[in-house]
Design goal:
Length: 370
């Protein structure tokens, strides 16, 4: 385990937000939306609105993701642009990490637009003791790259915060020997973005911001176990046509790719269905829109449902050079409702070393009924 999750909102809309994220809660979850305006042409962002776009008085929206890490360390990197600083105050956390019962650490903005990490946060409301703070303020209208590496512990906690690859805490050294545990367990399993105003007074709320290009890791294993650097997350959709393995049954016609190439999944409008044990379906994807760089990991994220009652596992497949490389970690789709399921490949199965752009471009990806 190391690479745990990656996302950019180019393949789902607001109505499908809970298929990708675990939950959107709060008194006013409508503060979160998906809009155009990513770092690259034609890409989208998650947006958390604030003043002028929210009801008067108390409000909050909490967009949460739950994962299964292999250690007490979270590494969360993302691109963020602040779009409105009006009424910022109260050091209201807009990012938090915690275990199933408590939130351990939160990130907030101060009135001078510097950033502060705090213990025992309540997303969108408030937080406790200061763990570390930056000295240089951020501004609106530009994308920054944030990379947070945090270890949860009673006394040996650690916190590193890189902004545009440069460490911002403790004169560039990061912080160690911290108490980063807010009761609960010395572990994490969820993080969130939040937008909130804890009472009717202003300025007491977090900034308005947009987020894209998220990468989440832990520090287990030889790959992706530290700050990943400024990454772009590409959401690649299948091309029309058939891959080398085309065993699944199309809902109509014979072109398999055209049935599953929607930017937003259209569910039962058209689809491919795996029926029998051993059936594989691999699809052809466009080449990555970059020629230089080092890929971190590959996620196959199909939108699946179980068509009948009962249980059925599904495996991922990577196909290169006419050879199928079946995955080892199955997923079990839920009966009757569509959801996204992640299959993560840290390394190229052919070379057994980290991916290259050529390796990704030379692969078909798909699924198998085991």
């Amino acid at each position: 385990m190391a690479g745990l999750w990656a996302d950019t909102p180019d393949y789902y809309n607001l109505a499908q937000l809970n298929r990708v994220w675990t939950s959107l809660t709060g008194t006013h979850p409508e503060v979160f939306t998906i809009v155009a305006g990513g770092r690259r042409a034609g890409t989208n962002v998650l947006k958390a609105i604030n003043t002028g776009g929210v009801p008067a008085g108390v409000y909050s929206g909490i967009l949460q993701k739950t994962l299964t890490p292999g250690s007490a360390t979270i590494i969360h990197a993302f691109a963020i642009k602040f779009t409105n600083f009006a009424n910022v105050g109260g050091e209201v956390p807009f990012w938090c990490v915690g275990d199933p019962s408590v939130w351990h650490v939160g990130l907030a903005m101060r009135a001078d637009h510097t950033l502060v990490f705090k213990l025992a946060p309540t997303p969108g409301y408030g937080a406790g003791a200061v763990l570390g703070a930056t000295t240089n303020p951020v501004t609106t209208g530009v994308f920054y790259h944030f990379s947070i590496k945090l270890t949860i512990h009673d006394s040996a906690g650690a916190l590193s915060f890189r902004l545009n690859r440069n460490e911002q805490l403790n004169s560039g050294l990061g912080l160690t020997g911290l108490d980063t545990r807010n009761a609960g367990t010395a572990a994490w399993s969820r993080f969130c973005f939040a937008s909130g105003k804890p009472n009717g007074a202003d300025p007491i709320q977090n900034p308005e911001f947009v987020v894209c290009d998220q990468v989440v890791c832990d520090d287990v294993g030889p790959d992706n176990n530290d700050h990943p650097g400024d990454c772009s997350v590409f959401a690649q959709l299948p091309l029309t046509g058939n891959g080398g393995a085309a065993d699944w049954t199309p809902s109509a016609g014979t072109d398999h790719g055209t049935l599953v190439d929607e930017a937003v999944a259209n569910d039962d409008t058209d689809y491919l269905q795996g029926v029998s044990t051993g059936q594989r379906e691999t699809l052809i994807y466009p080449a990555l829109p970059v020629v230089l760089g080092t890929p971190k990991f590959v996620i196959l994220r199909p939108c699946l449902k179980l068509a009948t009652a009962g249980a059925q596992n599904v495996l991922d497949v990577v196909r290169q050079g006419g050879v199928n490389y079946d995955g080892a970690t199955p997923q079990s789709p839920t009966s009757g409702s569509y959801a996204y399921y992640d299959f993560i490949r840290q390394r190229d199965p052919v070379t057994a070393v980290p991916w290259t752009i050529g390796g990704i471009n030379g692969s078909e990806l798909g699924l198998k009924v085991p």
